[in-house]
């Protein structure tokens, strides 16, 4: 499955603990990645600077749903389930 045009949910919803160029401490959940373009495309796609966790995340029908809002809801649910906050 290819990424949905103008979605970017996977670059907004999840937290990323590893450094990202321009975000040396990673990013909190729900914060738009600094590397996300206005068209919701990753500026680091295919580059070595892209965090491994980002490169490992593959679009799927389950994760992406049928819209950006469905993808954000799914990723928010995963973030909540895997959060280390107590």
From TrEMBL:
It comes from the Bacteria. Pfam families: CxxCxxCC. PANTHER family: UPF0153 PROTEIN YEIW. This is YkgJ family cysteine cluster protein. It comes from Ruminiclostridium herbifermentans.
């Amino acid at each position: 499955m290819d990424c949905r045009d103008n979605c970017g949910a996977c670059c907004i919803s999840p937290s990323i603990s590893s450094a990202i160029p321009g975000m040396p401490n990673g990013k909190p959940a729900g914060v738009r990645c600094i590397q996300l373009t206005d068209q919701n495309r990753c500026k680091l796609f295919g580059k070595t600077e892209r965090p491994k966790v980002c490169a490992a995340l593959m679009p799927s029908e389950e994760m992406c749903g049928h819209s950006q809002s469905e993808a954000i809801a799914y990723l928010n649910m995963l973030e909540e389930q895997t959060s280390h906050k107590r």
